[in-house]
Amino acid sequence: MAAYSPMLLRIAMTRLSSPADAEDVVQEVFLKLLTTRPHFRDLEHEKAWLIRTTLHRACDVARAAERRNLPLETAEVLPGGELPEPSPILSAVQALPAKYSAVIHLYYYEGYSIKEISKLLQIPLPTVGTRLSRGRERLRQLLKEDVE
């Protein structure tokens, strides 16, 4: 848990805007690991399982949050003040569709190669390259819109 928690938290934050939700996702992933006790070939297989499970769970939480969005007038004001504003680049990465934000985060933030991302996400190598390229282009467009 100590070895993978920071990485999984960063991955969850690419899909979720709330640090508390991201922490819950990571906690749920480790709980699932303990309760289901899957068999892993090696440490890399375990790490890949943790990353995939985190991405899937974070997407589930994000979809659920979208379904229960309330109009601003009916929303409660939460005590405790404001959260720090995320960087424009992180906000842009979070705004991307899940298939692009996942590969961009793993490549740039976690330092994985395209080959490693292919194995982690169990998608073909060319697909990773395509998603990385298309994700970069969408990021350029999003960041260009923010500047203008």
Describe this structure in words.
- The protein has 148 residues and is mainly α.
- The protein has helices spanning 5-15, 19-36, 43-67, 88-95, 98-109, 114-121, 125-147.
- Helix 5 crosses helix 7 (125-147).
- The longest helix is centred in the middle third of the chain and has 25 residues, at 43-67.
- The protein is globular, with a radius of gyration of 16 Å.
- It starts with a helix and ends with a helix.
- Residues 72-79 have low confidence and may be disordered.
Number of helices: 7
Rg, Å, rounded: 16 Å
Q: Which class do the helix and strand fractions yield?
A: mainly alpha
Secondary-structure element string: HHHHHHH
Shape: globular
- Mean of residue pLDDT values: 83
Q: Could you estimate the helical fraction of the residues in percent?
A: over 70%
Q: Classify the beta-strand content into a percent band.
A: under 5%
Residue stretches low in confidence (pLDDT < 50, at least 5 long) are 72-79
In short:
The chain has 148 residues and is mostly helical. The protein has helices at residues 5-15, 19-36, 43-67, 88-95, 98-109, 114-121, 125-147.
Strand and helix layout:
Elements: H1 5-15, H2 19-36, H3 43-67, H4 88-95, H5 98-109, H6 114-121, H7 125-147
Features:
single chain; 148 residues; mainly alpha; 7 helices; globular
